[in-house]
Amino acid sequence: MTNFQDKPNIRIMFDSLAPTYDKINKILSLGLHLTWNHSFVSLLGRSDHLLDLCAGTGHVALSYIQKYPQASATLVDFSTKMLENVQECHPLAPFSYVISDVTSMPLPNDTFHLASMAYGLRNLSSPLEALKEVHRVLKPKGRLGILELTRPATYNPVHLLHKLYLNLVVPSVGRFYSGNSYAYSYLKESIRNLPCDTSLERVFHKSGLHIIRKRKLLFGTATIWILEK
């Protein structure tokens, strides 16, 4: 399996969302994504440098350097507008920027001890190829942390509430604040179409990355995996 689903031109979509992306996501998640980011950073552990993939507006990298002030980060994203947002809002942050798709990064082999990918896995058109590329740039025993929005299991008591939330709240709030209901309908569909854990973890294994830790957050509405090369 190399494609989770057919993707729209999400580069254009994310460029259009960049000015309001943080505000909308705070509202949509009731601020929980900030708590999840902190949990994610804690599980990533200490490193001098973080490779932040699908970096968006840089919240994970910012949380990381707040926890580890001596660290720096390389932010990779295919959305120019998202990375420009980080540069404008945080001009003094110890960041370098790479505008690139994760499937083909202009980075050398065996370079990074630690990489992160938050809320980006479900947007990859070729997840296996992207993870193989991450494997290429990680040093031996290097680690990749993945934080992703996921679906609670059908037997989970919050499954129905989560489904209603995705179907009704997410597109409505996105339309109200961004004027782009399609983008947040896409968010709903991207979560709904994300394969189950078993299928995802098979892709991880095929890429050469092996799970060393896994944590479910808020009844399975988000999941953290720590993978090792």
Task: Provide structural commentary.
This protein is of the alpha/beta class and 229 residues long. It has one domain (10-228): Rossmann fold (3-Layer(aba) Sandwich), CATH 3.40.50.150. Helices cover 44% and strands 22% of the residues. The chain contains nine helices and seven strands; from the N terminus they run αααβαβαββαβαααββ. It has helices at 10-17, 21-28, 32-44, 59-67, 80-89, 127-137, 159-178, 181-192, 197-206; strands spanning 49-53, 72-77, 95-99, 112-118, 138-149, 210-217, 222-228. The chain has a seven-stranded mixed sheet with strand order 3-2-1-4-5-7-6, with helices on both faces. α2 (21-28) runs antiparallel to α7 (159-178), α3 (32-44) crosses α4 (59-67) and α7 packs antiparallel against α8 (181-192). The longest helix is centred in the last third of the chain and has 20 residues, at 159-178. It is globular and about 45 Å long. 37% of the residues are buried. Residues 1-6 have low confidence and may be disordered. InterPro entries: SAM-dependent_MTases_sf, UbiE/COQ5_MeTrFase, UbiE/COQ5_MeTrFase_CS. It catalyses: a 2-demethylmenaquinol + S-adenosyl-L-methionine = a menaquinol + S-adenosyl-L-homocysteine + H(+). Pathway: Quinol/quinone metabolism; menaquinone biosynthesis; menaquinol from 1,4-dihydroxy-2-naphthoate: step 2/2. S-adenosyl-L-methionine binds at residues 57, 77, 101-102. This is Demethylmenaquinone methyltransferase.
